[in-house]
UniProtKB/TrEMBL annotation:
Ranges that cross the membrane: none
Domain annotation Glutaredoxin: ranges: 12-69
Name of the featured protein: Glutaredoxin domain-containing protein
Source organism: Sphingomonas metalli
Lineage start: Bacteria, Pseudomonadati, Pseudomonadota, Alphaproteobacteria, Sphingomonadales
Classification via InterPro entries: Glutaredoxin, Glutaredoxin_subgr, Thioredoxin-like_sf
SUPFAM superfamilies documented for this protein: Thioredoxin-like (SSF52833)
Length: 81
């Protein structure tokens, strides 16, 4: 049984750069009462491989209940709905 209050967040934290959109997405999820499964992409290679695998151009990417919600703007719309 899937736990509907768990969100999977893939976000980029590189040695010289923490993605501000990933930080924002994590904050929004926590404020909305989600437990965040925070999956850090810590190299450019990991980020590129993830984006290619998912068919997306950006991180972060949020998944709730097995469904890809999208990035932080998509998440904001999802939570507002």
């Amino acid at each position: 049984m899937a736990d509907e209050n768990v969100a999977i967040l893939y976000r980029m934290i590189l040695p010289d750069h923490t993605c501000p959109f990933g930080v924002r997405a994590k904050e929004m999820l926590e404020e909305a009462g989600f437990e965040v499964d925070d999956r850090i992409l810590s190299s450019r290679e990991e980020v590129d491989a993830f984006e290619e695998e998912q068919g997306v151009d950006t991180t972060p990417q949020v998944f709730i209940d097995g469904e890809r919600i999208g990035g932080s703007d998509d998440l904001e719309r999802y939570l507002a709905a």
